[in-house]
Amino acid sequence: MSVLTAAPAQTVCAPLPVLGGDVTVPLVTGGEVAYAALDYAASAPALQRVWDDVAAYAPYYGSVHRGAGYLSQLSTDLFENARKAVAAFLGCRDGDQVVFTRSTTDSLNLLARALPADCQVFVFETEHHASLLPWQDGKVTYLDAPRSPRQAVETLERALADRDPHGPALVCVTGASNVTGELWPVRELAAAAHTHGARIVLDAAQLAPHHPVDVRDLDVDWVAFSGHKLYAPFGCGVLAGRADWLREAGPYLLGGGASRRVTRRADGGVDVEWHESAARHEAGSPNVIGAYAIASACKALTEAGWDDLVARERHLVRTVREGLAGVPEVRILSLFGDDAPRVGVISFVVEGWNSSHFAAALSAEYGIGVRDGLFCAHPLVRTLLGGDPQTQGECGAPEAAAGEKSLNAIRVSFGAGTPDEHVRRFVDAVRELVRDGAKWRYRTEGGRCVPAV
Ligand SMILES: Cc1ncc(COP(=O)(O)O)c(C=O)c1O
C-alpha cells in the first residue's frame, strides 16, 4: 500500500514515542521553544523503545563471536538473533544473507566490491550519491531522469535490451527518493531487470522507515538500509539478499572474524580460508548494539502496524502539501507529479529566497530543524531546479549569499515519531516568513547562512 493511495484511515494513530520530544532550543529573537525535528530523512530520532532495549542490554554488553564468558555468549546470541529479526522484517528468502554494515553507503559499496567480473550496472541519475557512485570502477550506465514511474520502467527496459545478454548485470534503484519522497516502481523495475537476466538492489534508506519492504514480494535481489534513518542511531546498517555473489567475492575487509583459518606457508606467506557466511564481510568486532537496535526498531515498527503508520504519515504529508499549496511563492519539487505516491519527504524552493537563508530562519526564529542544499543527489536536484551544474556548491554547503536567488532547495521530512503539531507549526512558519520576511539578519559563514549575532 502506498502512502497517498492508501484507503482513508478511520482513525489516525498517535506518533510513536521518540527521544528528544521535550528538548527546547533558544530562538535568536528571545526565549525558548520545543524543537521540531523535521529532518528525519537525514537522521531520525531514536525510538524510545529502541533506547530502552539498548539500555536494558548495555550492562550485559560483551564481545561477539570471540569470548568464552557468559556475556560474550549472550551478546553473540543477541547479534545472531538480530540478523534473524532483520531477515523476518524484510521477508528474506531461505538462503539469503543479512550482512551488518555501517550504513546504506557501506552496504552498496560492499555490493559494488562483490560484483562478478564484467558486471554491467544500470543506475538512474536521480539516485542519492550512495547509490550513484559506488559502481564507478566498473561498467556503469547512467540512465536519464524519468518523468513518470512508467517512463522509468521503459527507460530501464530499453537500456537492458541493448546490453550484452550473456554477462552479469545489476540494476540499482531507490525505493523512495530522498529529495521528492516519491515512490519508485520497484516491483516493475525488478520484473524488467529479471526479464533481461539482470539482478536488482533496492536502496531502501528512505523507504524502510516509512513503508513495509518485502524482498520476496518486490522480488528484489538485495536491499540496503541504514539504522540511523530507522530510529536506531547506533552506527549500523544492513545489506540483505542473495548469498552467491557475496560468497564468491573476496571479503570486504580483511581481518579477524571474516577468516576461518589462517596458516603460514612454507614460502613464508599466509593462506587464509574465509568464511562463506555473512561473517565473510563483517571483519572486526561486530557492532552488536547497532545490530540489536535495528532489530528492536524492526520489531517496534512491525508491532505498531504498518497500516496505521502509513495512514498517519499520509495524513502528515497531506497537511504539509496542502499548507504549502496555499503559499504561491513555494514550489514543491517533483519528478512524477502531484498524484505520485510519496513518503514524508518534501523538498521545495521559495521564490526570492536563498534556501539556506530560509532554513536558517526556520531554525533560528521558529526552532524548526529542516535541511537545505542538494541533499547528496546533485544531478536530481539540479534537474528539478533547472540549475547550472557549474554554479552549485558542494553537498550541504551552498555558496550563494543570504538573500540571493536560490540555487539549492529546502527539505522537510518526518515520520513515525512526528506529532501533528510539528508539521502545523512548520506550515505556519513558512507562511509567516514568506509574508513578513525574516525578523533577524543573517550572514554567510563557511558557505552556510547563520544568524548575524
Ligand atoms: C536514498 C538514500 N540512499 C542512501 C543514503 C545514504 O545513507 P547513509 O548516509 O546512512 O549511508 C541516503 C542518505 O540520506 C539516502 O537518502
TrEMBL record:
SUPFAM superfamilies: PLP-dependent transferases
UniProt keyword annotations, A-Z: Aminotransferase, Pyridoxal phosphate, Transferase
Gene Ontology terms, MF aspect: transaminase activity
Cofactor(s) required for function per UniProt: pyridoxal 5'-phosphate
Record carries keyword Protein biosynthesis: no
Aminotransferase class V domain ranges (all copies): 38-426
The protein's name in its UniProt record: Aminotransferase
